[in-house]
């Protein structure tokens, strides 16, 4: 079974990578980009029957810094 975890900085947390991408897009001539938030996607190949609770525990303990990041889990 496959799971995909999307991790993003929480609203209000400074995103210097996103700001750098927004600035770079402007210098390349792309207008109208007001803000960029950059995150990460983690793909997991798991044993069949792995529970969503187990994936949540993985996120809480290692995959996301829950103080400044939020995450969503997508199971395929």
TrEMBL record:
The keyword Repeat does not apply. It is found in: Cytoplasm. Its main location: cytoplasm. GO terms for biological process: 'de novo' IMP biosynthetic process. It catalyses: N(2)-formyl-N(1)-(5-phospho-beta-D-ribosyl)glycinamide + L-glutamine + ATP + H2O = 2-formamido-N(1)-(5-O-phospho-beta-D-ribosyl)acetamidine + L-glutamate + ADP + phosphate + H(+). It comes from the Bacteria. Pathway: Purine metabolism; IMP biosynthesis via de novo pathway; 5-amino-1-(5-phospho-D-ribosyl)imidazole from N(2)-formyl-N(1)-(5-phospho-D-ribosyl)glycinamide: step 1/2. Keywords: ATP-binding, Cytoplasm, Ligase, Nucleotide-binding, Purine biosynthesis. GO terms for molecular function: ATP binding; phosphoribosylformylglycinamidine synthase activity. It is an enzyme of class 6 (ligase). InterPro entries: PurS, PurS-like_sf. GO terms for cellular component: cytoplasm. The keyword Ligase applies. Its EC number is 6.3.5.3. Part of the phosphoribosylformylglycinamidine synthase complex involved in the purines biosynthetic pathway. Catalyzes the ATP-dependent conversion of formylglycinamide ribonucleotide (FGAR) and glutamine to yield formylglycinamidine ribonucleotide (FGAM) and glutamate. The FGAM synthase complex is composed of three subunits. PurQ produces an ammonia molecule by converting glutamine to glutamate. PurL transfers the ammonia molecule to FGAR to form FGAM in an ATP-dependent manner. Belongs to the PurS family. Part of the FGAM synthase complex composed of 1 PurL, 1 PurQ and 2 PurS subunits. This is Phosphoribosylformylglycinamidine synthase subunit PurS. It comes from Falsihalocynthiibacter arcticus.
